Amino acid sequence: MRIAILFDKNEKLHSTNWSLAWVEYCKENNFSYEIINPYRIEVIKELLDFDIILWHYSNYSFKDMLMAKNILFTLEEQGKKVFPSFKDAWHFDDKLAETYLLESIKAPIPKSFYYYDMLSLETDIKTNNLSFPIIAKLRNGSGSHNVKMIKSKEELLSYAKKMFTSGISSAPSLLYKASSNIKSSKSLKTLINRAKRIPEFLRSLSNAKKFNIERGYVYLQEFIPNEGYDLKVVVVGDKLSFIGRNIREGEFRASGGGDLFYDRNKVTKDIIDSAFKTSDDLGFLCMGYDYVVNLKTEKSIIIEISYGFSHQALLDANGYFDRNGKWYDEPMNVPYEILKSMLDESY
Questions:
Q1: For 87, 123, 227, 240, which has the most beta carbons within 10 A of its beta carbon?
Q2: Are 300 and 271 contacting, i.e. CB atoms less than 8 angstroms apart?
Q3: 229-336 belongs to which homologous superfamily?
């Protein structure tokens, strides 16, 4: 088996990039691998000599999002095993695509509204088809960036006029990120550790600013009242683990704040069954689901999905559930699990 791990050695990887874990796994198990720069000319010809191709590309990297799917899906079309595959990632960092996909299998998601002209939106406002508060999102962005709570018809009309004219930048806000980290830092040590990662965020911000302005649509989700937290639930094969994320003071968004917890009682059998079923129905090898529990109905709702997330934070759960809801005290290392699964299928 020839394994290619894609990244540019001349660029400093983010500390959460899975390529570092894939390299470690190959070294620990004496698997032959090569690090390939995916931005080289004729890289497809070079990668056709490999059996497994791995690329943890970032939604904050303009050039990654410009080319990664094209390269991986081309190789997959030629019979190569790639991660993320087409099924795992064609919808990556596109909340509208995620919504269409999850609606197609009747997954438990919030009621969603998408408009591609001002007249359709104005009609729904006039007929009181929309309830407030309501959540407005840009198609791309993670960590709660580009998510806004709208509390009135007037506010929605103002937001929509901007989206159908000048548009809104999808680049993350440095001020928002800094204030979120300060609010959720419960100790000086945590604050110092986060300060050390500022250079990483600045590099991500610099890359993200290359993206186009988002315009020409309005995407809305109904607001789900909840207990003040959400769950990042991750399914890989027959294993499921999670990260609990508390909502920051004065906020409605949990993602991106960094106030984490690992209470297994929050992961109900309903969530376990729902996450496994969704992954099975859509053929995902690996998927992270953002769940909230509706305060009124106690129903578990999928807010967003993404193949990528912090595998290091997931390790701190110190275990995983199986499909029957049984807990195992063994940390789930997602990059390891992905590569193990791909190797098992290849032999």
A1: 240
A2: yes
A3: ATP-grasp fold, B domain (3.30.470.20)
Radius of gyration of the chain, Cα coordinates, nearest whole angstrom: 20
Q: How far is CA 132 from CA 120, 126, 163, 305, 321, in A?
A: 18, 13, 19, 24, 37
Tens of each residue's pLDDT in the chain, 347 residues: 999 999 999 988 888 899 999 999 999 999 999 999 999 999 999 999 999 999 999 988 889 999 999 999 999 999 999 999 999 999 999 999 999 999 999 999 999 999 999 999 999 999 988 999 999 999 987 656 689 999 999 999 999 999 999 999 887 655 445 455 545 455 555 555 655 556 656 665 666 667 789 999 999 999 999 989 999 999 999 999 999 999 876 566 655 456 899 999 999 999 999 999 999 999 999 999 999 999 999 999 999 999 999 999 999 999 999 999 999 999 999 999 999 999 998 65
Place of tokens 């999850």: 102
Angle at which helices 62-77 and 198-208 cross, to 10°:
80
Cis, bond preceding 84 (omega within 30 deg of 0):
yes
Where in the sequence of the chain do the CATH 3.30.1490.20 domains occur? 111-170+211-223
Q: Report the DSSP beta bridge partners of residue 262.
A: none
Residues 6+ apart with CB under 8 A from 191: 181, 182, 185
